[in-house]
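Hi L., both proteins are below.
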Amino acid sequence: MQLMRLVVFLLLGFYAQITFASLPIQYWLTSSGVRVYFVENRDLPILDISIDFSAGSSMDTPEKSGHANLTRRLMSLGAGGFNEDQIATALADVGALQSGSFDRDRASFSLRTLSSERERTQALDIYSRIIQHPEFPESILARERGRVIAGIKEANMKPDYIASRALMEMLYGDHPYGLSGSGEIGVLEKVTREDLVAFYQTYYTAKNAVIAIMGDVSRIEAAGIAESLTRELSSGVDNILLSPVQLPKAGIKKIAHPATQSHILMAYPGLRRDDPDYFPLLVGNYILGGGGFVSRLMQEIRQKHGLAYSVYSYFAPFKEQGPFQIGLQTKKDQADEALKLTQDVLKEFVANGLTESELVAAKQNIVGGFPLRIDSNQKIIGYLAMIGFYDLPLTYLGDYIKAVEAVTVAQVIDAFQRRINPEGMVTVVVGAAK
């Protein structure tokens, strides 16, 4: 059985490296300075495009909380002379899909369309209007602002949301990462169209953008598409920087809630996306709490003591240090016991590390699962966008498996002991027992 596992592990690693080696990423700058990352793929008559701007919630301030989210939200609801219904109809007419995402660092806009001339031309025309000529109609602003506020009010009743908000405030303090992505109700009630236009003009600029393109087009065609999507953006400024994340003041915050269970969250400043400790911490966390039923937290908290149905840990890397987080839910009368046991597991792992067999199993699972994470154009373009936005090496995908395989027990122990202080964690318990 061990021999079979080893053979599968080696084959998956070999397959992954062959796949990545055959994925040549081309890179260039548009005439206005936009970075472009392109992979040509003629397997399907499909074109995928992603444009990412450094316009996430960390570009907000407490006085302008929620402006980043509302700006991105309204851009596709009226642009270039088209109202939201006309935009939706024009895209549906050619079977195109426009979507987006939003986090602390990025505001992203994605397009998937057929690569045939009529369909591609019409889809790109609408997409270009959204990116370069959003209109922010007053009536749409009033409606969407109301929806966001209603969503915040509803979320403020849910213990998981309450816990997450309190945790980020404790973890990041005055740093922009501590701001709510949705915004604060008092600020949102006063937001104006002029506020959104000002945010767009400041952050939706050529030098603040990255384009990822993958699919059934040539390099020449891809270059033309990138130019057409960005030539009317203002130039903007280079390198919008965030302040470094400071270590938080350790502590436990308990919040009353009528939920039947206690929601427990713990956090500490974790990883930057380009962090040199990324792979040792990635592999180590798989053993600690990222590997599902085989993780130490799951074995101790659920399997041995029956204190929770699920418990997990993860690193969320951003431009600056994203959170290292542990979470679980348990019965109210077991909250103190579950929290103490979770803290003990973390302390023991940081202090004494892992075994060689745990390391081998973790690397096998990470390597074995990675090909599934790049098995479609949409997944690959997500990596292209990440590589471009965070300025990672063009060989990142090809190097990933090698980097995981190279991690040692000593590296994991060293990284966790330098980077994670169990005594310095911030903790929130929502629905605590009396």
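That was the first. Here is the second:
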Amino acid sequence: MHPAPLLALAGMAALASTALAQQPRPDVPPGPVEPALPYSPSAAAAAQSGPAQTGGIALKLMGALVTVHPSIKVDLRHDDNLYLAPNNRASDQILVLTPALSLEARQANNTFGLRLSMTLGQYQKNTADNYSSYNIGAVADLDLGTRLRANLSADYLDGIDPRGSTNNPLSPTPDHYHQVQGRSIFSYGARGAKGRIDLELGQLRRNYYNNRAITAAEDRIVDDIGATFNWRIEPKTTLLVQGKHSRVDYTLSSSTLGSVENSLLAGAMWEASAKTKVAFRIGMVKKDFDDAARASSTNLSWTGEVDWSPRTYSHVALSLNRAPAETTGGVGNFIDRTNTGLRWTHDWSSRFTTATSAAYATDAYQGAARTDNTQSYGINANFKMRRWLSFGGDYAHSKRRSDDGNFDYQRNVFMLFLNAAL
């Protein structure tokens, strides 16, 4: 397939609608996104740059090699519980179109990435939920000398909280927001040296622009500063200590949710074998509120990843996380959130791949008599017809049980998709 038709298709998709926001992944309950605590430089870089890509259109601009990757994805979904309701569930079919364009460039020892994407959704019956969303993200990995390197990232998102995904009352339309996030990580230490220090600075700004009678209370700014000391004790084993300070400010003058979070964690990263890689950190995080009427809280916090590849074509990933998250709708002071997830990806052939996943999450609302337990699982099948063209299907089930029965739900999402990417 020549690149021109695909680029034209992506362009037409981007212009097709201006009244449609970001649809959440069907395998997890949707909701507001919070910066993870503690912060992982490697995970942040991977999230910004995205998965490794092949193919693309190679160009040479100003002495740098630039690879352009246009893509488009078409999803047809059936959701049997749009608003995560315990009873009288609303169902619908949703057509989702996602054109995207990513650029990768390398100049000397520096690499750069840029990604632009738009998501358009059309509901068959519940047209008030139609959405459009777009995202612009950039990342730069810079080699600044023998001992100094930097990872810089910036991201702009025009997105939504789907109706029913937060504790806010159901509005006539989804809650739309603009979110800007920037982060810089400076690493000091020669490549191959035993010791390395990572210093990080970051800021996230989220502002809602509709349903303001409710959403004005959700506008906030999160400032982060942190440092991680890494010490390699074996060729494949590194110990680390990480400290982080976060300031959460709500822009509404009457809000009492402003707080400071301080965390200190210690852990290790190691390759247990040629097939297994492990990273884990554990420690304490303390959250202090500006308003003395809201009690401070000190809790365990952890993050962990285990990647196991028993075969070159089979991969298992286990993720563990516990950290504070901001509440919505004025329920409690904050959420003590714990997540455990397992994913198995298997290539049955060079063309056919499946991925199965399961997760369990607990949201304990501090300052309120409410705990939510959510379990989810799903399966995805992908068939590659050509290097640039694939199709498949996805099924996801999620179930929440809450101390407040108004927030119980069960949800099933079925999806058929078609991907085209150079």
